[in-house]
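Exercise 7 asks you to align residues with tokens for two separate proteins.
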Amino acid sequence: MKKRIVYLDALKILAILFVLYNHTKIYGYDLYTVTDSRIDYWLSIACDVLCKTGVPLFLMASGALLLNKEESLPELFKKRILRYGITFAVFVFLQYLRRLHSGMSNSFSILEYLSFLYSKDVIAPYWFLRGYLSYLLILPFLRILAKHLKPEHYLWLIGLELLLSADRYITLVSGETYAMPFEFNTDWIFYPLLGFFMFTGMYEKTFLKKLKKTGFSWILLVLTTIAGSLIEGFAYPVFGENEAYFSPLVWILSIIIFHLFSEHQFAHEEMLADFGSCTLGIYLIEDIVRNRLEFLIPILSPVIGSMGAVLVFVILCFFAGVIAVKIVRHLPGFQYMLG
């Protein structure tokens, strides 16, 4: 196994756990909308706030790894874009076959399959796969950008995100579509660049060096989570369910979590590297794993409570996913796709 950066593997493991929780519906992620328990209400919301860092943490880990590499364009295409494109096409096709088997699609149509590749999601979580492919396509430009930006430029980018975070709250209050005269969807640019900024240590040359004080970082993490939870918790009964209540805080939480992982000395490095290498594969099949294990939640809930049951469920889904990925890798061609 090639040398891996352990804390980035640990970060990807945390990210896929957050993604799994994000897909637990009324059992966990939306539990606060149906529960009568005040404890479950607030725990569900707090977990919602934290789990929304799942995709940003994936992108930050990717930016940390990929923006620092030197690759020719042919090498980039063959090693990353072509391989990922094939993986995307194959798994969309497999999910399309599932749709046919379940009756969600009436009969096989090459045009319908192509539409799932191009514009529609064959299953809801696959929105990320198309976005990640677009990120790989602009990777050569992001590499140039990342390596030439100075710390103050990264702070400018963070400042833009701060401005847009404030704008999202203004939008909620004003009812206007956008309060600012522009829209800047930063996710596929902002988070990889942010990961590179943190990974290379450039942040230590800015006011963010205060994160080096571990106690300060933990306090900030807790306070930001509480803030997001309170905003959502008190807004929901009045305005209804809306992720926009706490989404402006996601990038702050992502920075803090990334930093805390980068400073931590992890044991069991080989195990973390092994599990970390499975995260893409788990994402590709996690809906199958979840659907097969979902029956456990009602069984566990009376014993360990609703939130306890869903957290155990998420962990079981992760390990089941690891086992499934290791098995699937032995099928012809899948080792190439899943690494």
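Second protein for Exercise 7:
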Amino acid sequence: MIIKILKGRLNENYNLNFKMNKTKLTLISLGMLLLPVLALAQPAVGSLNLCMLIGKIETAVWEVFGLIAVIAFVTAGILFLTAGGSAEKVAAARSAAIWGVAGVIVGIIAFSIIAIVGSGIGVGVGSGCQ
């Protein structure tokens, strides 16, 4: 009886140690994989000013907008292709394409307003700052 209890506890401790060792091994492996990235890291050149920050944000937003627009048009195209002559599916696809065009127009107008205001106050895309 006592031997069975001791064997059970030894097995529990072994399983616990094995799990801890596996976790440690995983963390060490991930750390080793990140070492080249850290070794090749370069410090930022120059300082980040307001003009550069706004320009980077505008660029990131514009890229996300472009990705969303492409997804909208691909979705509308797939809807057209899978309509199979059904009038209501073609109408839904046409509606998706029209709303995609409307979204692109609104995005271009919004970007233009941001550029005009930015050039007026001297920051952003329309200002010409470096």
